[in-house]
Amino acid sequence: MANQLHIHEQNAVSHRLQIDSIKAERDAALNDKETIRRELETVKSRLDSVQKAWQNTRGELDQRENKFSSHENHLKQLENDALYAKSCFDGFKQQVCQLLSDGYVKVEPKEDEIKEKIQLLMQSSKDRGVVSESFISNIYSISSLRS
User: Fold this and answer.
1) Closest Cα partner for 100 from 124, 79, 84, 69?
2) What digits encode the pLDDT tens for the residues 62-92?
3) Reported pTM
4) Which of 52, 90, 100, 111 could form a disulfide with 107 if both were Cys (CB 3.0 to 4.6 A apart)?
């Protein structure tokens, strides 16, 4: 019986050691589980931050794309307006040249030629004014001689 008691004591000590070992493993596993849970929370928090930053960056990119598209459309409109204005100006020069041309001189739709022809017309108009004044003064002098 002493032998059996000794075997039971050894088995009890062995079982206690196994239980202590299993408790230590359990405690280590629970500790690891808690560490992993905290790391998971940290990773989730980082992921949320990264997603928010990405959404903000995406929103800024969308705004920039919209501005770029708007500016591009505005530029196209300005180019079309400029082309229309140039076309109107060219048509105006053509009409002015037709008005300034006569049977002897054809004025080309160039700004320098238009300016030169207008200056000639102005000078001619001034000369006619001087001649008219001269005729009027001659008429007065003739009429004063008759009276």
Assistant:
1) 124
2) 999 999 999 999 999 999 999 999 999 999 9
3) 0.55
4) 100
